[in-house]
Structures are given as C-alpha cells and as structure tokens.
Specification:
Length: 176
C-alpha cells in the first residue's frame, strides 16, 4: 500500500544505492551528542574512537550502550569485562572528534589526559565521563552493540558538541 506523508513516498532502506543513502540521511536527522570511547590495550597502548551511537539503556542497574563497526581495529578491545570510558565531548572539542575519527596512531599526542580506573585514559575538557566495564556484546548487522555497566561518573557540566545531518555543531548555532 502506498503511503505519502507531506508529499514524501516511503522507501525500503536496502533496495538500491539511492535507498541506502536515504536511510543514512534519515538516521542523520536524529541529532546526537559526540563521545570518544577510550580504553587501554593488554599491552598498555591507549586507544580511542569517536562514537555518536552512544545512548542510555538502564538506570538500575546503570547501563549504557553504543555500537562498534565489525571492521573496526578496536573491535576486539571492547570485549566483555574490558574497562572503557565514555568521554562526552564539549562544544570546544570539535578537533578531538575529528582526530579520534581518523586513522592514525598519534591520537593521544599533545592532548591532556588523566588516568581513570584500570589506567584507561580520560580526555581533559569533557562534559561528562562515565567509567564502564563491558557487560555484554550483541551482534547487530554490520555493528556489534556494546553494553557498558557504569561504575563511576563525573558530571562536569558544559555545553556539549552535537552531531546532526553529518556535521559537528554547537547548541544555539544558527545553521539549517
Ligand atoms: C561523528 C562520528 C560518529 C561516529 N560514530 C561511530 C560509532 O558509533 N561506531 C563506530 O564504530 N564508529 C563510529 N565512527 C567512526 C570511528 O570514529 C572511526 O571509524 C575510527 O575512529 C577510525 O579510526 P582508525 O582508523 O584508527 O581505526 C564515528 C565517526 C564520526 C566522525
């Protein structure tokens, strides 16, 4: 049955390249904050990646979730029981969002860090920090869902960085 909403016809997300693009665009209309998930490898190398799929899951017990791409070089580092920190970026940290979304081994050079539980790096200047242990992993298509149990919280409270329509933005910014 054809359904038209405000002149727009529905699209099946996986039918064609154009439909896949429409699916990405649709997801991009959902505004999110921006986080960097940090952890430390078994050989004590600091690791971090920019993530916008973060969300709340449960208040009691305190659980959060995010998704990691199947091909990510970080895929095995967020295994069950691994410690990690959700660093919620502030509007002044756009450059960190870009840095931690690009290939390279120098991501932690010239940035301020402190050490959290289990030696996980915590990026200075963030809005909120959630120190977690990976509670569970679930397959979800081309990503895995990572569930984290929160064990310590820092609520610094600053204006957050936003991600909307494929762009990094600030609250109150007047862009279409
Ligand atoms: C705004 C933004 C949001 C992102 N969200 C995710 C995400 O939720 N999950 C994920 O696996 N990758 C996400 N990425 C991609 C990773 O940050 C990126 O693949 C990774 O940092 C690449 O680093 P590497 O080349 O060192 O592997 C996102 C990138 C950007 C710019």
């Amino acid at each position: 049955m054809t359904l038209i909403i405000e002149g727009i016809a529905g699209i099946e997300p996986a039918a064609t390249d154009q439909a896949r693009r429409a699916f990405r665009d649709a997801l991009g209309h959902f505004a999110t904050g921006v986080t960097v998930m940090t952890t430390v490898s078994d050989s004590k190398i600091d690791l971090g990646l920019t993530v916008s799929s973060f969300n709340s899951l449960s208040l009691d017990p305190p659980l959060i979730l995010w998704s990691i791409a199947n091909g990510s070089i970080y895929y095995d580092h967020f295994r069950v029981k691994a410690p990690f920190i959700v660093n919620v970026l502030s509007e002044a940290q756009e450059s960190l969002a870009v840095k931690f979304s690009r290939p390279g081994s120098d991501k932690f050079e010239n940035i301020g860090i402190q050490r959290g539980l289990d030696g996980v790096p915590l990026l200075e200047g963030c809005v909120v920090y959630l120190e977690c242990l990976t509670e569970a992993r679930y397959p979800g298509g081309d990503h895995d869902i990572v569930v984290g149990r929160v064990r310590r919280i820092f609520n610094v409270g600053k204006a957050p960085l936003l991600f909307h329509g494929g762009s990094l933005r600030s609250l109150g910014e007047n862009r279409s």
